[in-house]
Amino acid sequence: MKNTLRNIFHSGKFVAGFVIFVILLVTIIVYPLINPGSPLEQIGVGTFAKPGTYVSLYDAAKTSPDRERETLRLSDADDKRLAKALSDSDRVLMVEWLGLKGVDLEGIDYQDTEALLELWHENYDSTFKPKGMTSAAQKKYKRLNDALLDLQTGDNLTVMSEGETLSTIKKTDYVNVGTVTNVKLLPLGTDNFGRDVLKELVGATKTSLGVGIVAGIVATLLGLSMGLLSGYVGGIVDDFIMFITNLFTVIPGFILLILISYSISQEYRGPATVAAVIGFTSWPWTARSVRSQVISLRNRDHVNLSKLSGHSMLRIVVTDILPYIASYVVMAFILQVSSGILSEAQLSLLGLGPKTTTTPTLGLMMNWAMMYSAHTNGSWWAYFPVILTITLISFSLNLMNTGLDQVFNPTLRD
Amino acid sequence: MNEDRIVASKDFTNAPLCLSGRHVTKVFGFGDKKTIAVNDVSFDFHEGEFVSIVGESGSGKTTLSKILLGLLNHTEGEILFQGQPRDISTGKKRNAYWKGIQAIFQDPFSSYNSFHKIDAVLLDCINMRGGKNLPMEKKIEMMTEACSFVNLKFAELTNKYPFELSGGQMQRLMIARIFLLKPKILLADEPTSMVDACSRATILDMLLQLRDEIGMTIIFITHDIGLAYYISDTVYIMEHGKFVEYGKADEVILNPKAAYTKRLISDVPKIHEEWDLSTVDLANG
Ligand SMILES: Nc1ncnc2c1ncn2[C@@H]1O[C@H](COP(=O)(O)OP(=O)(O)OP(=O)(O)O)[C@@H](O)[C@H]1O
Ligand SMILES: [Mg+2]
Question: Residue B197 is inside which H or E element, if any?
């Protein structure tokens, strides 16, 4: 037993999957402690705010620039602002004008905003009209000049309240973000309802993992007991259970899942119900493989010896059959959890997932993103992190499974 | 075939019956995949008799033994236990039946639950014989005795898992189990397949000793007709699921009638002849 555990943790694949999974788990547990509150709390009225740090404009403006220690004056602020405001096509126009004016263009750096502007103001003349220049073109240059003047002259901002000047903000004033009372960090922006996507995602991952685990437990327990019964008892019990599992192979489990979910009225369709429904529709394949393993085990002589020793059927199943399939059952459980999470996401995408106003699920987040067309309006943060999380969960679970498989069935190793 | 026998083969035809079969047939599968593993065999095994069932691989020996043990349902025919039709329809009746009939299986490696220490196997036997409430020292004493009966040291085996034992040790432990259980009938399916010639003689000795001590009926399954001749009272020769010949060991083997028996006998390696180099024609060899 100890040996097996050691082997498992020597398998690179298992460890990689395990580490990813543990990181996810730790995030789920720790993040709500750092950022408490309901994951579905609406923090703003706007929809699909871009990821980033949001600073209260009001607070920033009211932060008095006189408080020397907390503000900073950097003279290049204006240049940077100008550089950003001056588009490449404006720069091309300016150089064009200077060329017409006969300025030596040798050594002019388009990106050097300061030098370019200086040259412009030295040489611009609204009356200059070389031969062949239309008056439309002349007006175009005039407009450009006005805009440039505007950029540079727009002087200090004055903050007023009820006619009284509170403060004057110079173009070069900076304020430390730490002194602004209201700053909101939204690493993944907000969704269509104005909710913090990261917080929602953490909550959703927790619920979805829960759904997957409950579905996995239900499916594995059902599949295991059905498989044991069917394989060990045989006869009519076997026929009956095989009939049911055959039904499931004819009718795809997902269709059944949709039909059952559809028939449960919305108010009863919480995460737990959905998890149970997923579990109830996905046990047959576990049952089938458990059955075939039990059939090959039940004729082994150690089982015969146990019978000859007068052991009860229950004892034989528990002590002589179960230990031999335990490793398989663990692997089946991991796969069931993984497919349970995917099933929930698929169901929710179709609008048949859990109806909840308190807890999000990964599927529901996808559903909302789709309904409010996040994918067409470019709000990638509303759905891409969700897809990534789902992928990461199944990837880590499947990695663990492959690792376990290599330890338990060493013949499969390449 | 004139080696010394350790026991004179006795005639058991008038001894009390313990296990009989009438037209027992076992068919596996159906259609194209149908295998008739046991084909309409009838037999009478008597109390205290040492019976050998001899046949080639695949002749149906193990299948017949599983049927006799009640671990496999036969397709047709009837099994009689002590002259009465055998009834093992309920779990209780089966457990009562298994108090009287026990087995050593062909493959020692698959006979143990690899998750249990081997002590459990022996403790089970003591419990089954009503020793459940005995003090632990007494149980250990019994297990030590059983182990030393098969030349094993219990102290060296205790707390070990089956995979830590050799095939021969596993087989001998199975005999220790029989020693503790003392059943009326023992079905031994090739119990010496994993041991060297020397240990084989010891094991056979042990079986005969048990037979003499508790009047056990031994049904010994083997493919080695020489071995069967060496120890049994009665032999049944099995070919393709049928008994082609049976009778007192010396009568059958010294005077075989069926062609199959003759072939089995001629296949027994004749050590002296095979290794006598003087008979080998070196010039043509
Ligand atoms: N569970 C089974 N299902 C189908 N066929 C079986 C089964 N068990 C045995 N057989 C077939 O029955 C025939 C007899 O098998 P059995 O194991 O009784 O032979 P055996 O005499 O014990 O051979 P060996 O000396 O190799 O142990 C074989 O042809 C085998 O293929
Ligand atoms: Mg056999």
Answer: helix B197-214
Q: For ligand 1, is residue B61 a contact (CB within 6 Å)?
A: yes
- 3-state class (DSSP) for residue A358: coil
| Residue A309 touches chain B, beta carbons under 8 Å | yes
Same domain, A247 and A162: no
Looking at ligand 1, which residue's alpha carbon is closest to its atom 29? B58
Per-residue pLDDT at A174 exceeds 90: no
Tokens encoding A220: 């594995």
> Nearest residue on chain A to B186, judged by CA atoms?
A308
Q: Which of A161, A181, A201 is the last residue of a domain?
A: A181
Tokens representing B123? 């403790």
User: Cα separation of A210 and A199, whole Å?
Assistant: 17
Give me the helix-helix angle, A284-298 and A235-250, nearest 10°: 150
Whether residue A175 sits in one domain with residue A142 = yes
Instruction: Kindly tell me if the per-residue pLDDT of A284 is higher than 80.
Output: yes
Would you say A354 and A274 are in contact if contact means Cβ atoms under 8 Å apart?
Answer: yes
Give a yes or no: residue A376 inside a domain: yes
pLDDT-above-90 percentage for chain A: 38
Higher pLDDT, B250 or B21: B21
Q: Report the distance separating Cα A402 and Cα B87, nearest Å.
A: 49
Q: What is the ipTM of this complex?
A: 0.88
Question: Which CATH number is correct for B16-268, 3.30.70.360, 3.40.50.300, 3.40.30.10, 3.10.50.40?
Answer: 3.40.50.300
Whole-Å CA distances, A351 to A92, A191, A400, B45, B249: 53, 18, 31, 73, 80
